[in-house]
């Protein structure tokens, strides 16, 4: 059996008496796209923060290609090949789009290789027309794409995205869905998302969280047709 790209084993996170995440097991294969959904307070963000190293779980283990990364510092996790989309720091505001992506690309590469990555990434994200614009002057959606570009420029094997479509216009959401499918041709992604329309556009396998546990994990069509999933989204709790 091959080693999963990412694996969470019996992960539990307690805050005082509250178990935000309880005994969660999840496996992700190479180049897989996994969506994590669930109602408010279901534990998605907490689980996501455990994957990124922002939180150390009370119990359980997280492995990347078999290596224990439980509670490892986010930059250590990044160096292993996990890209996490975070807000582009404000210092980027005074840089052009090309310069910002260049900084992300240049971290561990030759200048020539970095330039090539910057060009390819800008092409993929259709940022070439705004390459010389200041990051600080971009609209919300464009800034989100620059953030994704800075992650891609580091050439990760796994990309973790928390609500990538939040605050976007309908056209931007469509473009972002297209982009995620494109990225997924080569790289694995875990996407936490609220927007069910967006999930319908991108999802293959979906893991549904409810009350800190996995309620169901299946292909998107089966998940969306599941009465238990409908109940938790409508506020009727499944027990
Ligand atoms: N730092 C914390 N301290 C105490 N309780 C917390 C903390 N973080 C999360 N919780 C609790 O853990 C539970 C799960 O929260 P979490 O934010 O992970 O859910 P979520 O599924 O991401 O929700 P949302 O979709 O609203 O972001 C909630 O009951 C929340 O109040």
Task: Describe this protein with a few key phrases.
P-loop_NTPase, 239 residues, alpha/beta, 25% strand, ATP hydrolysis activity, 10 strands, six-stranded mixed beta sheet, ABC_AA/LPS_Transport, four-stranded antiparallel beta sheet, binds adenosine-5'-triphosphate
Structural notes for this entry:
The chain is of the alpha/beta class and 239 residues long. It is 36% helix and 25% strand. The protein contains 9 helices and 10 strands. The strands form 2 sheets. Strands 6-7-8-3-9-10 form a 6-stranded mixed sheet, with helices on both faces. Strands 2-1-4-5 form a 4-stranded antiparallel sheet, covered by helices on one side. Adenosine-5'-triphosphate binds at residues 15, 18, 20, 38, 40-46, 209.
Please provide a brief summary of the model:
Helix content is 36%, strand content 25%. The chain is α/β, with parallel strands linked by helices.
Number of helical stretches of at least 4 residues: 9
Sheet/helix structural class: alpha/beta
| β-strand amount | 25-35%
The end-to-end span amounts to 34 Å
Mean pLDDT: 92
The spatial strand order of the largest sheet comes to 6-7-8-3-9-10
Low-confidence runs (pLDDT<50, min 5 residues)? Answer: none
- Tell the overall outline: globular
Instruction: Give the beta-strand count.
Output: 10
Q: SSE order in H/E notation?
A: EEEHEEHEHHHEHEHEEHH
Q: Mind summarizing the main beta sheet?
A: 6 strands, mixed
Bound molecules: adenosine-5'-triphosphate
The portion of residues assigned to helices is 25-40%
Fold blueprint:
Blueprint: E1 6-15, E2 18-28, E3 33-37, H1 44-52, E4 59-64, E5 67-68, H2 74-80, E6 82-84, H3 97-105, H4 111-124, H5 140-152, E7 158-162, H6 170-183, E8 188-192, H7 196-202, E9 205-210, E10 213-219, H8 220-224, H9 227-234
Parallel strand pairs: 3-8, 3-9, 6-7, 7-8
Antiparallel strand pairs: 1-2, 1-4, 4-5, 9-10
Helix pairs in contact: 3-4, 3-5
Adenosine-5'-triphosphate binds at residues 15, 18, 20, 38, 40-46, 209.
